[in-house]
Amino acid sequence: MCVCVILAMTGHASVICVLAEGAAPGLERKVAVLPEHPRSKDLAAALQHNKAITTLDLFDNGIDDEGGKALAEALQHNSTLISLNLPLNGIGAEGGKALAEALQHNSMLCTLNLKYNDIGDEGGKAFLKALRQNATVTNLNLHKNGISEEILKQVDRALALLARIGGRTRNTW
Predict the structure, then answer these.
(1) Which CATH code for domain 2-166?
(2) Which of 80, 96, 18 is nearest to 48 (CA)?
(3) Is there a contact between 173 and 145 (Cβ–Cβ < 8 Å)?
(4) Could you report the per-residue pLDDT of 67-106, keeping only the tens digit for each?
C-alpha cells in the first residue's frame, strides 16, 4: 500500500489529506484539519509514530530551522517514510545539520528534497558526512541552498558511488 500525505496551509487552518492507494474501501482518503497555527513539532510527533505514511510533501510550509530539527528527531524513529519533500521552507544550517544527522540513523528514507532552503556550506558538509553512513538515500536535492558548487559536486559523487555500490539507480534533479 502506498500512502501519500499532502499538507495544505490555508488562511484559517491546515489540512492534512492522506491518500492510500489500494487501501480498504473507505480508507482511500482521510482528511484531518489541524489548528490554525500548527506547529512542526506536532506534525513531527505524529510522524515519529507513523506506521503507514511513505511519502510526505511539505512544500512551502514555513517549517524553518526549529521545524527541521523536529522533523529530524522524528526521522530517527520513523521506519516507513521513504520520500520527504521540503523545498522552500526556510530551513537553515541548523535544521539542515539536524536532518543530515537523522539520516545517519534512518534506514528507510530514499528521497529527500530540500531545494530552495538556506542550508549553506555547513549544512551541505553535514549531508556529505551523513552519506558516508547512510546507504539508503538515493535522491538528495540540496540545490539553491547557498551551498558551493564544490560541495554539491561532492554530494553528487557520493550519491553516484552509493548507487554503484548498491546496484541502485538514482534520479538526478
Answers:
(1) 3.80.10.10
(2) 80
(3) no
(4) 999 999 999 999 999 999 999 999 999 999 999 999 999 9
